[in-house]
């Protein structure tokens, strides 16, 4: 999948850039041929990690608790990838010639690559390690003709992989936590949480979520579940008996309002959203009634 929109074997141009935390501005930074070659290697290394993972590609899930690395992607036009798409679409940028004066202000760095068909890929990395060696000036040495020579210049440290790679159709996510920071997903989820709950409320006619909508912006985990549920194209097909049955097994209690909708207890609101987000299930393999389970991490599998 990742090889369909960019040729990692034929990279014909490289531009290196940074984004400054203080003002959000992006700049290109002049680089020599050796640095460009190193950036190509980092891109190929990142692609190689994706290729070496055993699972199939899976869509990014806003409510997933990602642990071990997986092949995760999102459409570039995904609502939660807008900040990332901005980097890809940046176009021509002014050069930042005095990078040493701004090194501590770098939020992330990125490299823009073009292949033989002029297709673009952008690798992005949170700048945690980039600045890690600045305080080590006059304490770093290099080996020259079997002699240790002190490095007196400022030194920046490139990582061995990008957190994500962006192509025209997709964002390929290697490190979800860093990607979410760069994409400002926490802020986006909080600002749209009430809207997402309304989508769920309007799509499932037998549930009342109006009380949840009033306060969900202050509950980040619930807001993520709501964002995930709202993306489900099958919400209108949810069945009342099935939800009532599963809810009872998880101790979720409802009362029926005057309009016929079901409203859960305040203490059950988080659990109800987990249930609607397919993160609660009941398993009975021994025929003894089984037990309820909660899954913060999941992968959908094919038969």
UniProtKB/TrEMBL annotation:
Database matches in InterPro entries: KwaB-like (IPR032359)
UniProt superkingdom: Bacteria
Stored Pfam families: KwaB (PF16162)
Official protein name in the record: DUF4868 domain-containing protein
